């Protein structure tokens, strides 16, 4: 058995080729993809892939990429990449459809009707990543050319903008991963094809995308264990990010290829002969290092190219685990092993499920030679990562180990998200925790915990559970007591992958501030600081009171009449207690402590406490300014609007500026509906004679209730931050309903009062701009 190699990307189609010729070529590509699908999934619904292809082909008709190719070439090539990862037909169909919502105006409801809820969800997740900026189609913001600034300032601004963009992208990616990892697998394939066709873009966009790929997408592929995507992303990005270094390394590799190949061929022949003599059926191949890996090793270890002796390794693939260890013994008998250069990732697999035996020996030419030994199943996992373990999503038998590892990863992703307060901190934490070299240790129960190299037992304890960390007093590694400053770092020879770590706790124990000087992970630092915030609550409460007093004094100076005759009444515990629930805290003490620590701004609380301004004398409104249906200002064609009774329908709550219709009810006057309302559609279809076009103007000074539905990342202080947006824009909240989900997101339904559709659009734009908001719309 052998795994197929990734096919080389087809060259861009020459200009002038007619569309029919292109489609015939793409039909052949899809046919080959479907045949490959049926090889690894004979029961697959191949017609689903064909239907998705035909649908996407029709929707993208007439659209052209920067390369001059018809746009449909891109989703077809993304699908072909995913076929080589042996993904199932729902993923292939979603990859073909991944741009139709964003680029072709297709509604999700249409995808639901055509392809079902699963594919709709996948496409929706990919569309949200694109809308939030995780895509290839948007240029980076340019500085204001009218402003006279120095090159140093421009460079600093660009770096800040890039950091903010990458942080926002990663946050959205992490949420998508928490929902369904298949979305990220499709996104990685999408990015790979875009990198293959990067030559058609401007140099500035090439550099931006190459850096983004090296900083985000290639490390994600590594974290998910998808080697086949990782190395291609790295080499393609290396070519555009550092073209001079790429050219040097490529030239050096090409110059020595013949000599190295001869050495590898000699080693392969010798090992094949020995294994055949021992009756071991094995596939033995050379595995050259890719260019970016060579460049990194030269930079990290300050080596010249001629000093690198492991540019090529042998890979031995057998059928069973026992055969792996038999091959290891034969390799040791054939060539002298190098002491200390052996790793058993079969007995103790890596966090991304990678398994293999690694040993380094003195090869037949007298130079070091690395040999990797694994089974075919291990090889699939090494090449395809999480994609190789998706059978539980496709109706197969669940892989409990895989699900447990993925659960750890998803919790880790959530911790990174909520522990970071700003873009710079977030990117620093992710770089330290996610993209750094990893070590893999086990709990006494056998669970694998991956940590950045240099982590301590305290990091381990907090990674398992925050309460375990808070009560830690000691640790054992492989049964031996170690200090809490013990460093899990293979480089200093005090730790090796697979060690078993046991945390010793005491109920009365508390964290030490000294831990902050030793812990490596951002999650442990955040949990320790959070603990001391709670301990110092009384001090924070006092600071919160003082901050509220200062802010109130400032606000009264700006607007003396707006705060009534006794402004200090708003600082009494009863008043603050009344708004605590609005900020997702349990009491006025917790609210003041949050203000004192800086989690909630005092102006946000005061905006909530401030009484509403009196309505203008000439306004027509109820006591609170809320719409009075008896006084709606309506123009309804030739009807005598003055003698008609109107009301806003509760099903869609139209507001001034909406495209509305009036439905003449039986005995209850005219009901106003938004034209997009489902009930309005029914009336227009079945009772057209009772429908009237209306112009809904409203009255000056009047506000109207609407309901927003938001999906956001769930975290402490979320409701306070959302409320601040409404408060800053003088928009009253009348009701809030929240529903938390297991994937660390929360659905919020918020009733607000707006003047018209322009006011509503402005509010929605503000809310959608918040980094934690995944989706926001009017219900």
**Low-pLDDT runs:** 1-8, 10-14, 137-147, 391-398, 615-625
Task: Provide the residue-averaged pLDDT.
Answer: 78
| Tally of helical segments | 27
SS class: alpha+beta
The quaternary organization reads as single chain
Distance between the termini: 54 Å
Neighbour order of strands in the largest sheet: 1-2-5-4-3
Q: How can the largest sheet be summarized?
A: 5 strands, mixed
Nearest-angstrom radius of gyration?
Answer: 31 Å
Helix content: 40-55%
- What percentage of amino acids are in beta strands? 5-15%
How many β strands by DSSP? 20
Shape designation: globular
Short account of what is shown:
The chain has 27 helices and 20 strands. With 779 residues, it is of the alpha+beta class.
Question: Strands, helices and their partners?
Answer:
Elements: H1 19-40, H2 46-59, H3 73-84, H4 89-96, H5 100-104, H6 108-115, H7 117-131, H8 151-179, H9 181-196, H10 203-223, H11 227-241, H12 243-277, E1 283-288, H13 291-300, E2 312-318, H14 321-334, E3 336-344, E4 357-362, E5 368-375, H15 376-384, H16 400-419, H17 423-433, E6 438-442, E7 448-452, H18 457-464, H19 466-470, E8 472-477, E9 480-482, E10 501-505, H20 522-535, H21 537-558, H22 573-580, H23 588-597, H24 602-609, E11 634-635, E12 646-648, E13 660-664, E14 670-674, H25 678-686, E15 691-693, E16 695-696, E17 704-713, H26 718-728, E18 733-740, E19 745-754, H27 757-768, E20 773-778
Parallel strand pairs: 2-5, 12-14
Antiparallel strand pairs: 1-2, 3-4, 4-5, 6-7, 8-9, 8-10, 11-16, 13-14, 13-15, 17-19, 17-20, 18-19
